[in-house]
Specification:
about 260 residues, seven-stranded parallel sheet, alpha/beta, Rossmann fold, binds nicotinamide-adenine-dinucleotide
Length: about 260
């Protein structure tokens, strides 16, 4: 496969580790320059060095996606340095591990601000930039979750926030189609990242299990009997970000090793 994103400018949120970092590296491998956003300064700087080692330009910006002020300031920096944005990937997210009756309002708001409101803010700024600059085949892709489609015990705020991502994706798909901008989401099942390891540690005890027992139980439900690797999700997001996917929009694509079939 040749380079799919030669000369494009991409923004990746949550780029310091996990799926966001895997995607930033994939974009760079395919010829794009990458703006990396994350709250984790150290991880972000390491990821930016790895992006540059692939021959791409990297602009790391430390930003708390829970703050609309910081998001707007970060986007001001992007627009001061680059003329137009071709691709936005919303990967930053946090999970919860508390029964709804125990979730305090502050935690609920934090989950919604990072997992959903930040995507609305990033999409609004980016789509306006794309429209103003008459970007051809602009792309927006967000990470939702399998947990957006079916409720999970001890994960209520997260499930509800990710269900919001799916509907935001549909509506933006409708509203931006006339500009040739596509908007998609991916809904991964279990992915082998630090977030998932912390889910095993926190949610195992809620289910009366050790983290290892809980990990084994969850992977036993997956027909492929394993978690996905971050690069496997990034590979599909790369496709959705490329001109090969110009006619796909408004869809939340499940990638779960067959988990939703049983
Ligand atoms: N791991 C899984 O099994 C799984 C499954 C489905 C969906 N997801 C979703 O995939 C996305 C990536 O998850 P991951 O597993 O790679 O997790 P991760 O924790 O490894 O990475 C998430 C990144 O988001 C960043 N982030 C968190 N809060 C932030 C904030 N306030 N401001 C800026 N950056 C912030 C973190 O610093 C981190 O670098 C998330 O949206 C997550 O909800 C994960």
């Amino acid at each position: 496969m040749g380079k799919l994103l030669q000369g494009k400018l991409c923004i990746v949120t949550g780029a310091a580790r996990g799926m966001g970092k895997a995607l930033a590296l994939k974009y760079a491998e395919h010829g794009a320059d990458v703006v990396l956003m994350d709250i984790n300064k150290e991880g972000l700087e390491k990821a930016a060095i790895e992006v540059e080692a692939l021959g791409a330009h990297a602009l790391p910006i430390v930003v708390n996606m829970a703050s609309s002020k910081e998001i707007n300031e970060a986007m001001d920096k992007v627009e001061a340095k680059f003329e137009k944005i071709d691709i936005l990937a919303n990967c930053a997210g946090i999970s919860t591990s508390r029964l709804i009756l125990d979730v305090e309002e502050e935690e609920w708001d934090r989950v919604f601000n990072i997992n959903l409101k930040s995507i609305y803010l990033m999409c609004r700024r980016t789509a306006k930039n794309m429209i103003k600059n008459k970007v051809k085949n602009g792309k927006i892709v967000s990470i939702s979750s399998q947990a957006s489609k079916i409720g999970e015990l001890g994960n209520g705020a997260y499930c509800a926030s990710k269900a919001g991502v799916n509907l935001l994706t549909q509506v933006l798909g409708l509203e931006l189609a006339e500009y040739g901008i596509t908007v998609n989401a991916v809904c991964p099942g279990y992915v082998n990242t630090e977030m998932m390891q912390s889910v095993f540690e926190k949610r195992g005890p809620i289910e009366g299990m050790t983290p290892k027992e809980y990990e084994e139980l969850l992977t036993s439900y997956v027909p492929m009997k394993r978690m996905a690797e971050p690069e496997e999700i990034a590979e599909f997001m790369l496709f959705l970000s490329s001109e090969k996917a110009n006619y796909i929009t408004g869809i939340s694509h499940t990638i779960a090793g067959g988990k939703t079939l049983i």
